[in-house]
Design brief:
66% helix, 302 residues, disordered N terminus
Length: 302
């Protein structure tokens, strides 16, 4: 009778030639893990320092804002900076409503205009599909600032200046990055599911609505978050097209805190923190779905 014996793999020898014992190997793993944790803590502290400075500045008095050398913690917490900054001389409630309208319409436009071409590039076969997809990706290399002047000339001739149309209508014509991310996710969905739906007589729109979109929730969540953050913080194009006070957004309103002689940095930081709250809340609520969507759209090999 043959007796099978398990052969343990030899441990990698040290530079001196002797293999590591189990205790020594465990000690090395702990040291490496501790080093990784220390590096992550230091990196997190570097990224959190500006945010902590915003929080402490929003609670300082006017004199403490101008103190030199700067002090990290205020002597007393002045929470009234939030009320003064929000309900002061600028109508930030109106700015908030304008931002919500522009951001919401832009998100809807991004989803409607990007899902259809992404599905076509991923699952439909057509002549020159590869060339068209390469041309789409090539548009991502064009800096957005290059198109500002021709777009402004076109929209001004249409009479759209000082309206929401120049900021919302282009979002209904697709964004190359979002189409690329959705296409990458659609390629990871098994072809057998689509073939089964076609055998059952489902049309391509039905397949997209009933098969692809329910499975693509992580990618859609990632695109919604990208679109929300990009349009919520948009400043340059908003400043170009929006002129009247009742139509400007939060980002523009924050820029108005810069006075000619003095700037209320404490109130500015207070309003900036309030304007960041929707982004932080949405990210923490959809964090797992967002990270899964970004991961899966990045590992597709086709």
């Amino acid at each position: 009778m043959l007796v099978e014996t398990a052969v343990k793999p030899a441990r990698a020898p040290r530079p001196g030639g002797k293999p590591l014992s189990s205790e020594q190997a465990e000690r090395v793993r702990r040291i490496r893990r501790s080093g990784a944790y220390i590096l992550l803590v230091i990196s997190s502290a570097v990224f959190l320092l500006p945010f902590l400075w915003m929080v402490t500045t929003s609670l300082k008095s006017d004199a403490e804002n101008l103190a030199f050398p700067p002090q990290w913690l205020p002597d007393s917490f002045n929470f009234d900076n939030y009320a003064k900054g929000w309900s002061g001389s600028l109508p930030f409630t109106r700015f908030l409503l304008n931002t919500i309208v522009i951001t919401g319409l832009s998100m809807v436009g991004n989803l409607v205009s990007c899902v259809l071409p992404a599905y076509a590039f991923a699952r439909l076969r057509a002549r020159a599909a590869g060339f068209m997809f390469a041309a789409l990706l090539a548009t991502m290399m064009i800096p957005r600032e290059i198109t500002l002047v021709p777009k402004f000339v076109m929209f001004s001739k249409l009479g759209w200046v000082d309206t929401y149309l120049p900021l919302v209508v282009p979002e209904f014509f697709g964004v190359a990055l979002y189409i690329f991310l959705l296409r990458q996710f659609f390629t990871t969905i098994p072809q057998e599911l689509i073939d089964a739906a076609r055998i059952d007589g489902a049309s391509e729109l039905r397949i997209l609505w009933s098969v692809m979109l329910p499975l693509a929730k992580p990618a859609i969540a990632a695109i919604c978050l990208f679109s929300f953050v990009g349009n919520w913080n948009q400043y340059l194009e908003n400043s170009i097209y929006l002129r009247s006070m009742e139509k400007i957004t939060l980002a523009q309103g924050l820029g108005m805190f810069n006075g000619q002689y003095v700037t209320q940095y404490n109130q500015m930081m207070a309003v900036a923190l309030v304007s960041m709250l929707p982004i932080l809340v949405i990210f923490f609520l959809a964090q797992k779905t967002f990270i899964r969507g970004v991961t899966l759209t990045g590992i597709a090999g086709r």
